[in-house]
UniProtKB/TrEMBL annotation, chains A, B:
It comes from Mobilicoccus pelagius NBRC 104925. One of its GO terms (biological process) is L-leucine catabolic process. This is Hydroxymethylglutaryl-CoA lyase. Transmembrane segments: none annotated. It comes from the Bacteria.
Amino acid sequence: MRSPQVRPAEGLPSRVTIYEVGVRDGLQNEKTIVPLDVKAEFVRHLEDAGVGVIETTSFVSPKWVPQLADAADLLAELGESGRVRTRPVLVPNPKGLDRAIEAGVSSIAVFGSATETFAARNLNNTLDGQFDMFGPVVERAKAEGMWVRCYVSMCFGDPWEGDVAPEQVVSVARRLMDLGCDELSIGDTIGVGTPGQVEAVLDGLLGAGIDLDRIAVHFHDTYGQALSNTLASLRKGVSIVDSSAGGLGGCPYAKSATGNLATEDLVWMLHGLGIETGIDLEKLVETSMWMAERLGRPSSSAVVRALGARG
Amino acid sequence: MRSPQVRPAEGLPSRVTIYEVGVRDGLQNEKTIVPLDVKAEFVRHLEDAGVGVIETTSFVSPKWVPQLADAADLLAELGESGRVRTRPVLVPNPKGLDRAIEAGVSSIAVFGSATETFAARNLNNTLDGQFDMFGPVVERAKAEGMWVRCYVSMCFGDPWEGDVAPEQVVSVARRLMDLGCDELSIGDTIGVGTPGQVEAVLDGLLGAGIDLDRIAVHFHDTYGQALSNTLASLRKGVSIVDSSAGGLGGCPYAKSATGNLATEDLVWMLHGLGIETGIDLEKLVETSMWMAERLGRPSSSAVVRALGARG
């Protein structure tokens, strides 16, 4: 394993927080339901590898996402009542928030849309209506002392609407922050964005008075652009990056590959740039290889494949 | 298909020349020997898609690389005596140059090493000795009026030596230019490099008086870093990038994945950044899907997979 450089390159953050989505976003998209004990072991392995923030599950309706029907049981199995800032849980609606509060969760994420069509299809709402829906959820979560993240989907392109204007993303993001969210995750849900668009959106967010330390980026590798877009974000000062251990969340061997950026590939770049992550890459690779065996197919992470071949 | 932006982002080149290596480097690494007529059709499809420079074959010994034993026949089949600047041919040694001259080739590439161990293993020579070997080849090629490129391998890491000092890469590159080479291709042969290293090497080359328009970059996606490293190179002003249609040159499904950067993934980023390439991406994707069918396995290009799934 190559040793990281001592100091980060000029203009880059010295440390990046990786927000790990493989357990929730990854396993949610698996065809099979992963057993609770495997999920819990996955979380523990990731934590042992130094992954600081792990989105652990979602209080979505089990009818919609049977893969995560064990949300409350998983949190109970993991212990500490989930009352740690480092294990956020996705909450899609007021009912999900009820369940999160009951489970003793201390940090949640909600899932908004930058486009009208995705708001209709994914939230069964309108672009404006989503704020009426999220408003009471965020307000109550904050009153409960929770930390709240908000995903903004389709920030760089939408399968139905095509290009998305940066101004529209900024407007949605600003309104979500005004509701009281602590952090935004700016998502390229279909993976079509390129670095110039990323810079335009980030410039817009900063221009709208949103602090850099409240902005995370979330890129998909559908068109191979995730890591380049991340690099462009780092150069703008972003220091929170979403990624998925082993690239879980989309099968590279399926025709409709929609994989998340693999945490290992991200860590390889960050450590190469001298940026601290707190992650032990060898342990992380071992974890993803272990999980790939459980899922019965190879990891889509290039680093996992490359280092796995050496072992 | 998304329409490119009108103007390139600040500080980036307005146009990039893609040096296509899929026909030579890609097919050389296939287990099966691709028939001559398929190779010729591949080259013609690529040219029809607007790919400007295509490394067409190699005059390497057929004993070592039987996949390219048809080098002279392929050039004859393609016509124009190969006497165009846009169809360079790899030439490993004086004997290869004899064959290239006989075939009427007008531009060649030679293949050097930035490290002692790779010079020993790949060139059966020493780091210093390679200049004695290439010197007469380059001199004779130039006397014949040829254009000469030189690859420099292992510029960012070596499987036996580990890290490679930027100063060593610069020293090798400078000596190759002093032999009379027209263009350098700075290669990350094992795909381990990250953007900070890329910037350090490029700074070193420019500091040694090598012109920007003589520097190409050649990245492998073994650790998922190829496109990020390309972006870092573009920001340094590099405007010649090596890539491989469909990512040919390493099977992503094999454990020892060593794929070249896929031309389609590169073009997606460049067009998104408003950088001209002269390439029709839809035609290129069709070509790579056609070639993938001939090879009997899916393309490793994310863009080919994503757009292919839509078709």
